[in-house]
Write a structure and sequence with these properties.
Protein name: ATP-binding cassette, subfamily B
Strand order of the largest sheet: 6-9-10-3-11-12
Distance between the termini: 38 Å
Largest sheet: 6 strands, mixed
Organism: Gemmobacter megaterium
Bound molecules: adenosine-5'-triphosphate
Structural class: alpha/beta
Domain ABC transporter: 54-288
Number of helices: 10
Order of helices and strands: HEEEHEEHEEHHHEHEHEEEHH
Radius of gyration: 19 Å
Subcellular location: Cell membrane
Length: 298
């Protein structure tokens, strides 16, 4: 896995950006091994994001040829819309996230952003266009400032503070012994799950990507913190194309479209109300989760 403890100051900003994206993705998807070698096509142009439309066109994918994982998934997310991917564990939600990032190439079909096939553009430009908010943000052993500015290392103090305010973590940072210069991470101040996630949100806000990939937190945050974080994520999604990988359903009700995956195939799609009215898989998942939530703890 990517080493995250080595000093990073000497690294160039482009490298840092890619690295951040990879660290976030690695964290997000629990990638323990190196993904397959993906190289840019010689002379590949940069991705040009004009609006942020994301299309999966009859996507087939297998990690191992003997075991197909995605079996013809087609999804179109218009620029500025929010798509929620739901489905049982192992149905292929995170795999779609990995393909969007081109950690792997599709076996058949295509993934396109604003009409450009991901295989035809540079990976640097692709990674620069997508912001990832993982459920567990990786903190470096450095200052709070550094950890937020990691989203854009040339950011000024005012810009970092602006992002921290928008992520509603500025006041907390100001209450720390050395404010933005307080050391955090394994060897510094340990932040709570919610605080770490806010640092991650601030980092992504600073990067200002047109496309967001959100991994809904499954980690235990208290209800109020979780609600606050959801509000921040919702605000961050305004005006951007958002793909939300939802492990629970409580946060998907507002999505423009919900896609239900089962064993690598889309089995239902629609808005929350439509899917409830259809009384199919989504409605059953919803009923099951609602029952779990209302169960008193044993
Ligand atoms: P969850 O909700 O549990 O996170 P998911 O819907 O995100 O599940 P994926 O992580 O996309 O599911 O996994 C889909 C299938 O692909 C699973 O059967 C999984 O075992 C398999 N898989 C995932 N990563 C790899 C890998 N690196 N190599 C081989 N198979 C993999």
């Amino acid at each position: 896995m990517i080493q995250i403890t080595m000093p990073l100051n000497f690294l160039g900003s482009v490298y840092r950006e890619i690295r951040q994206a990879l660290v976030d993705m690695g964290e997000m998807f629990g990638l323990l091994g190196q993904p397959a070698e993906i190289v840019d096509r010689p002379g590949a142009p940069d991705l040009k994001v004009t609006g942020g439309e994301v299309v999966l066109d009859d996507v087939h994918f297998a990690y191992d040829p003997s075991r197909p994982i995605l079996k013809g998934v087609s999804v179109r997310i218009p620029a500025g819309h929010t798509l929620a991917l739901v489905g049982s564990s192992g149905s292929g939600k995170s795999t779609i996230g990995r393909l969007l990032f081109r950690f792997y190439d599709v076996t058949a079909g295509a993934v396109r952003i604003d009409g450009q096939d991901l295989r035809e553009v540079t990976q640097d430009s692709l990674h620069g266009a997508i912001g990832v908010v993982p459920q567990d943000t990786v903190l470096f052993n450095d200052t709070v400032f550094y950890n937020i500015a990691y989203g854009r290392p040339d950011a000024s103090r005012a810009e970092v503070e602006g992002a921290a305010r928008a992520a509603r973590i500025h006041d907390f940072i100001m209450s720390l012994p050395e404010g933005y210069d307080t050391k955090v991470g394994e060897r510094g101040l340990k932040l709570s799950g919610g605080e770490k996630q806010r640092v991650g949100i601030a980092r992504t806000l600073l990067k200002n990507p047109p496309i967001l990939l959100l991994d809904e937190a499954t980690s235990a945050l208290d209800t109020q913190t979780e609600r606050d974080i959801q509000d921040s994520l919702r605000e961050m999604g305004e005006g951007r194309t958002v793909i939300m990988i939802a492990h629970r359903l409580s946060t998907v009700a507002d999505a423009d479209e919900i896609v239900v995956l089962e064993q690598g195939e889309v089995v239902e799609r629609g808005r929350h109300d439509e899917l409830l009215a259809r009384d199919g898989r989504y409605a059953a998942m919803w009923a099951r989760q609602s029952a779990e939530v209302s169960q008193p703890p044993a």
